[in-house]
Amino acid sequence: MPTPAKQIKDAVPISASAGPKRRNSVPLRLKVPEPPARPGEAPNFDNLMLSDAGAVRRPDTDASPGDMRDLCYSLIRVLDDDGVAQGPWAPTVSPDLLRTGLRAMMLTRAYDDRMARAQRHGKTTFYMKCTGEEAIAVAQVLALDPEDMCFPTYRQQGLYITRNYPIIDMMNQVYSNAKDPLKGRQMPIMYSARSHNIFSIAGNLGVQFMHAVGWAMGSALSGDTKIAAGWIGDGSTAEGDFHAALTFAAVYHAPVILNIVNNQWAISSYQGIAGGDEAPFAARGIGYGVPALRVDGNDFLAVYAATQWAADRARSNLGATLIELFTYRAESHSTSDDPSKYRPAEEGPSWPLGDPIERLKEHLIKIGEWTEEQHEKLHAELAADVRDTQRKAEAIGTHGTGEGPSPKLMFDDVYKEPDWRLLRQRQEAGY
Question: Is 400 left (phi over 0), alpha (psi -120 to 50) or beta?
Answer without folding.
Answer: left
